[in-house]
UniProtKB/TrEMBL annotation:
Keywords: NAD, Oxidoreductase. Residues 18-477 form the Aldehyde dehydrogenase domain. This is methylmalonate-semialdehyde dehydrogenase (CoA acylating). CDD domains: ALDH_F6_MMSDH. Its EC number is 1.2.1.27. PROSITE patterns: ALDEHYDE_DEHYDR_CYS.
């Protein structure tokens, strides 16, 4: 059986002391194993990154960017292969996997602008013959820890920007679907990156804790569930590291009575069930304003869901594939059971989907639940499955209060034709990423991505302009060149321009 190893100092390394099974979720079978890095292996990766740093730091940004241009081409040339790897281990259908990759590539395109992004700030004559400038210097060794649900895109949120900013990187991807991530790192190597600048260690808590505890690691970017995000943030901070930790979500869509209901239903279908709902931006709660809107939504949604196709990643006609593991399948079903037990109405029940030829796959069918209330477990917690819950309220303010009261604040959306209502909503809602008739408002690569409340621990968002700030530290230089022979007088007061 194949084993997925690590990439350290430009070489594939297999630290086979501990191995974990990797599944094909569409069949339920073990397809390969992944090596779980020991502390020693992670320390080797950190050492390789540290050794590569002095030269990489001094490599002109334009040369770093040229490697990213070649990397982008290699990603595009290998897109089908990467999508296949994602499908095999994650279960994502090819059209969705290619979409994920494309959104990742857009971060590489942004990173190609490094010379422009790193130009810094300059002020001439801040005092008599005194100039001052701020430059943005790399941090050194930085690390990324990523979740299973976007094995290509989320790592690409991190390392292209970290690396063009002059840092060296150690990535700890999800151990559940490691192959596409490792292959992508190898493509970066092929694009001409010097050995040691980019390293990948597969692993679990042991690898993560080694990164958190090692004083050579200057900063950590994390994306995953909220309890782990909080742990990473607190531990990194306690150890003096810069940290951004993006967590879980419960994204609500407000459906106003004036919304184009057919359009809203189409948008909700994709945003709730695409990728089996295993997206941190999935719309998992529809808040219908007024019973008329709720009834129309339920009726149209129920009808539209009859044609939803769940099945194996390899059949491109499927709308979405399995969830990641057997345990997760059971967890999602458990949330549906709990909603039913707490009095909600199961309108479309996906608990026993029939997928011919794939009876052991980890499938959950599209599920629609009506009359969900905020006290229910299925409302409070992130389900991360193909389940759309409908909450009924009687005003837009009540819908906004519901969203604001939830512990998560990643994404949200409003479906309406009323510009004034939409403007009020986007201005006041306590959520980091807002859509107006846009169900998945995932910011493009030249903005930055991040939620509010317990969806993000830290100050700076992921990728885009915030990534330049996260992966560099500001140094401000003030300079004077006195004319030869000029002696300045002694002054003990604070220098001012008065
Ligand atoms: P997860 O938190 O289980 O794992 C994320 C990473 O943390 C993995 O690399 C994993 O190996 C590591 N990890 C897991 N348990 C750990 C522990 N006890 N100690 C140290 N490290 C540990 O998340 P997941 O199940 O892979 O991904 C799904 C979650 O990620 C969902 O909650 C989803 O909302 C979230 N997510 C958030 C965003 C965002 O941008 N906010 C994006 C994608 C996914």
């Amino acid at each position: 059986m194949n084993t997925v190893g690590h990439l350290i100092n430009g070489q594939i390394v297999n630290d086979a002391a501990r191995l974990q099974d990797v599944y094909n979720p569409s069949t339920g079978e073990v397809s390969k194993q992944v090596a779980l890095a020991s502390k020693t292996t992670v320390e080797q990766a950190i050492a390789a990154a540290e050794a590569a740093f002095p030269e990489w730091r001094n490599t002109p940004p334009i040369k770093r960017a040229r490697i990213m241009f070649r990397f982008k081409e290699l990603l595009e040339q290998n897109a089908e292969r990467i999508a296949q790897m994602i499908g095999e281990e994650h279960g994502k259908i090819a059209h969705d996997a290619l979409g994920e990759l494309q959104r990742g590539i857009e971060n590489v395109e942004y990173a190609c602008g490094a010379p422009e992004l790193l130009k810094g700030e300059h002020s001439k004559n801040v005092g008599p013959n005194i100039d001052s400038w701020s430059e943005f210097q790399p941090l050194g060794v930085v690390a990324g820890i990523t979740p299973f649900n976007f094995p290509a895109m989320v790592p690409l949120w991190m390392f292209p920007m970290a690396i063009v900013c002059g840092n060296c990187f150690v990535l700890k991807p999800s151990e559940r679907d490691p192959s596409s991530t490792l292959f992508i790192a190898q493509l970066l190597q092929e694009a001409g990156l010097p050995d040691g600048v980019m390293n990948v260690v597969n692993g679990d808590k042991e690898a993560v804790d080694t990164l958190l505890g090692d004083s050579r690691v200057q900063a950590i970017s994390f994306v995953g569930s909220t309890p782990i995000a909080e742990y990473i943030y607190k531990t990194a901070n306690a150890n003096g590291k810069r940290c951004q930790a993006l967590g879980g979500a419960k994204n609500h869509a407000i459906v106003m009575p004036d919304a184009d209901m057919d359009n809203a239903v189409n948008q909700l279908l994709g945003a709730a069930f695409g990728s089996s709902g295993e997206r941190c931006m999935a719309l998992s709660v529809a808040v219908a304003v007024g019973d008329a809107a709720a009834d129309a939504l339920i009726e149209k949604m129920q009808a539209a869901m009859q044609s939803l196709k769940v099945g194996a990643y390899s059949d491109k006609s499927n709308d979405f594939g399995p969830v990641i593991t057997k345990a997760h399948q059971q967890k999602v079903v458990g949330y549906i059971d709990s909603a039913e037990a707490q009095g909600a109405t199961i309108v479309v029940d996906g608990r026993n989907p029939q997928v011919a030829g794939h009876e052991n796959g980890f499938f959950v069918g599209g599920t629609l639940i009506d009359r969900v209330s905020p006290d229910m477990l299925s409302y409070k917690e992130e389900i991360f499955g193909p389940v759309l819950q409908v909450v009924r309220v009687d005003s837009m303010q009540a819908a906004m209060d519901l969203i604001d009261a939830h512990e998560y604040g990643n994404g949200t959306c409003i479906f309406t034709r009323d510009g004034e209502a939409a403007r009020y909503f986007s201005d006041n809602i306590k959520v980091g990423m807002v859509g107006i008739n846009v169900p998945l408002p995932v910011p493009v690569a030249y903005h930055s991505f991040g939620g509010w409340k317990r969806s993000l621990f830290g100050d700076l968002h992921a990728y885009g302009p915030d990534a330049v700030r996260f992966y560099t530290k500001r140094k401000t230089v003030t300079q004077r060149w006195p004319s030869a022979g000029v002696r300045e007088s002694v002054s003990f007061s604070m220098p001012t321009m008065k």
